[in-house]
Amino acid sequence: MNPLYPMVRKEAIEDLMAARGVFFLLIATLVMSAFSVLLVSNTELSLLDNAEAVYMMAGIIVALGSLVSVVRGSDGYAGERERETLEPLLIAPITGRQIAVAKLSGILFSWLFLYVLAIPYLWAVGSTGQNLLPSLEYLFITGSFMVVILGGLSLALSAKMRSSRGALSLSLTILLLTGSPVVLGASLRQSAVGRLLDLINPMAGALNTLDSVIIDSQGFSFQVLRLSILIVYSLLVTWALRAATKRIEP
Amino acid sequence: MTVCLCKKACICAALAFMIFTARPIFAQNLSGTALRVTLTPPAGSLKMGDTPVFRGAVTNLGSRPMQGLIVYLSLVSLEPGQEHPIDLEDWSAQKAVRIERLDPGAAQYQNWEMRLIQAGRFGAALTVINPEENKPVISSLITFEVQPKPTLSRGRILPVAIGVPLLLLALLGIISYSRLPRRYGSS
User: Fold this and answer.
1) Looking at domain B33-147, which CATH architecture does it have?
2) Which of A43, B49, B126, B169 has the greatest CB tally within 10 Å of its CB?
3) What does DSSP say about strands B46-47 and B142-147: parallel, antiparallel, or unpaired?
4) ipTM over 0.90
């Protein structure tokens, strides 16, 4: 039996069965509940306003998924090192890369649970509006890419850093940096520099894809460039993770 | 008496001047409409979310062919207190139509599909610009009412907003409860 399977199973199930994993999901659902309840006061939104609400909900879900992936990723190696459980793992008949694959799969499973929990919220907010199904599809695609990019990067940092706090601080800084251009106003993002930042920033790419699909009802051909950039980032992060986990120090 | 006559003469002269100077404008209005543009609204009532088709027709009533005509749709909100022109960006994919050539007596028809994203009272009109003339030709304003459609329902949101966290809390409780005996057993 490939030793990767029990490792993937452990990473995927352990987090869900642990109180910490469920607690993360609980916080995420409370955030989504609070946003949904805020919308209840206005039941006669225009279709565009309704699409805007679905888009904001989708953006919140991507941000929560990214946050969970950063927290889990930065704990991946450095946390095990601090708890002194990394050494037994390294002497097990499993390579460093297989451990990385298992840990990244665990992060992706966490995202999958969050996504499944988010579906009722998106349905509740957007079922009478427009583009609910495309919003679910593209949320899954863009969210998965963001989780691979940020979770993979956090794992790579965690493999090289001795303290999980240090890895978490650096990963959170990267998350804030990717999120910061998004809070800039539309006028600033229309300038040449703003457009360039939007193009190279994966978080902006994910959110602009959701905006284009949910609000502007644009098809796949409009999303090709942004999705390609997300794919390129995912490949780069996978390569960085592979390089970082080639040789892990206990 | 002479003063009164002078006044009357002045008023008559002013009126004559106004009529004289107004005549060419009136004539231009009549002769300038060699185009006829009409817009027909869809039948039946409309509600938010519908995508009705408005039918436009441009007819050349003149004796010369016309080239490079630009036809576009305009939409205004007629809601009392909120009267304003509406940007068609989110309402219609078709922004303008160019008619390469329209022969005398010929008519060109277009279908203008609109996505009704907001409730309220609206007016729509079709405008034709002939690059050879300095006056656009505008159809009669069509007014229509878009019935509201509730986009958010408390009946859907509240059970989800309350139910999902409760479900996770229950799961958290089950996990904590299932670990209690093991903890006591080991000590």
Assistant:
1) Sandwich (2.60)
2) B126
3) parallel
4) no
